[in-house]
Specification:
Layout (H helix, E strand, L loop, with lengths): L6 E12 L1 H18 L12 H31 L5 E8 L8 E12 H7 L2 E8 L2 H15 L3 E2 L9 E10 L5 E11 L7 H7 L7 E7 L13 E13 L7 H7 L6 H33 L2 H7 L3 H24 L12 H21 L6 H12 L4 H5 L5 H24 L1 E8 H7 L6
Helix pairs in contact: 1-2, 4-7, 7-14, 9-10, 10-13, 11-13
């Protein structure tokens, strides 16, 4: 992105007035300290007359004090105006006469970074996540539910039930069966790929027969049904559930938890949720930034004209199709085939952010210490099994390069977050989880 790091130069001029009282107080204090320490021939230490010290050292002390005050004023000025790059600093001094204020003027050029200016105009909200006792209990209940076995039930289908169905597909226009008597196990949550199936069988019972019509996307990998209206005939074969239970510490001990009591377990779970909250808050910041940055006018215009982005989009689509093809060969169940009709939009987003991150790393000379890379690598390989290590499945060079890329990307986002406007937003942990469902990188 050749244009985002262009520089503009503007001048800043500021006049300062330093009161004579301020200057004289500092001079007299320095002279007094010097009088106690200095040794001059003909006088004992600490007994040199003040007049002699002033005649010999006043100008040196004045220049030193003035230099310090001017430097402090300059640092305050660039910090207040958030100036990072400047050049051609010039000072214009007035004449100082004891008893009158001293004035001077500073003039310098500021190198404005267009990208920094763009970041300064973006406002993001940082999630200040509140973790309640209720949240901790819910996490424990959910985990306990996950490790408990599925139990058959005769009641109607509810959310999070596990349902087994038999189904066949018929083209609506000519009643030709294109898929006969297939069996499928479904976990009834809203992440299920075909919403029409989800809503057609929810609240139904075992042995119920359901017919629903679906129009498949033209991007669907199954050519027979891509872009066509299909009638789906379903029979509910089996319904299973995991019953809600009270927190039972014995169930956690059976699973291998080492805590001695439930309070100790809750404390450790709180620490884990706290760490997860930090990750959620950071991902939410990224998600907001990406959305706002891509939707800025000049970026929108730039996306369709940049050859690097166009090339990256084509590459992403190719990778996506290759991945889809391998999944399709392995599994002929059309309900489980992944497809994304917004692949071009997603590829644009990924391409523009990858280019931006690379530019920041290059322009700002970001780097990662070898010490940190080694530390992360050590923690990473601990997750590999001994079998993998013995069979040399671990490719050290690739893992180290991936770690370096990840850390550089995070450092680039740190730079971004230091330059945008960030406001805090209080939120409950459960709501924060919902906000962070989608990932953008």
């Amino acid at each position: 992105m050749n244009s985002i790091f262009e520089k503009n130069i503007t001048s800043i001029k500021k006049k300062y007035i330093i009161s004579t009282n301020n200057i004289e107080k500092k001079i007299q204090k320095k002279l007094l300290n010097l009088q106690k320490k200095i040794v001059i021939n003909g006088f004992r230490k600490g007994k040199v007359p003040k007049k002699i010290i002033e005649e010999n050292y006043r100008n040196k002390i004045f220049n030193k004090i003035l230099k310090k005050i001017i430097h402090q004023n300059f640092i305050k000025l660039i910090q207040k105006k958030n100036i990072q790059n400047y050049q051609n600093v010039k000072y214009f001094f007035g004449k100082y006469i004891p008893g009158t204020d001293f004035n001077y003027t500073i003039k310098f050029d500021v190198i404005l970074d267009k990208f920094i200016q763009k970041l300064n105009s973006i406002t993001l909200y940082n999630l200040n996540i509140n973790i309640s006792k209720k949240n901790i209990d819910q996490v424990m209940l959910n985990f306990q539910k996950n490790i408990s076995p599925w139990q058959e039930k005769n009641e109607s289908i509810k959310k999070n039930d596990k349902v087994t169905i038999n189904y066949h597909l018929t083209l609506k226009d000519n009643n030709i069966k294109i898929l006969k008597n297939k069996k499928l196990s479904i976990l009834m949550n809203k992440n299920f790929l075909l919403k029409e199936i989800f809503y057609s069988i929810i609240n139904k019972k075992k042995e119920d027969l359901i017919t629903t019509n679906i129009k498949f996307s033209k991007y669907h990998p199954e050519k027979k049904i891509a872009g066509k209206k299909v009638t789906v005939c379903i029979k509910i074969v089996n319904i299973k559930e995991k019953k809600n239970q009270k927190i039972n510490f014995k169930e956690f001990k059976k699973f291998g938890f080492i805590e001695n009591n439930i309070e100790e377990l809750k404390k450790n779970i709180y620490v884990q949720i706290k760490e997860e909250s930090k990750k959620i808050a950071r991902e939410y910041l990224k998600k907001q930034f990406i959305k706002k940055y891509i939707n800025t006018k000049d970026i929108k215009k730039y996306i369709d004209k940049n050859n690097e982005i166009i090339s990256m989009i084509k590459k992403n689509i190719f990778i996506y199709k290759e991945k889809l093809g391998s999944q399709y060969k392995k599994n002929q169940n059309i309900f489980e085939k992944l497809y994304n009709k917004n692949i071009i939009k997603a590829s644009k987003k990924k391409a523009i952010i990858n280019i931006l991150i690379k530019k920041i790393i290059l322009e700002k000379s970001l780097s990662i210490s070898q010490k940190l890379i080694k530390k992360v690598f050590k923690n990473t390989i601990q997750n590999f099994s001994q079998k993998d290590k013995k069979n040399n499945i671990i490719n050290k060079k690739i893992i180290i390069q991936n770690i370096k890329n990840f850390l550089l990307k995070e450092k680039a986002f740190n730079f971004i977050f230091q330059n945008v406007v960030i406001k805090n937003k209080k939120i409950d942990f459960k709501k924060a989880l919902k906000k962070n469902k989608k990932t953008y990188l």
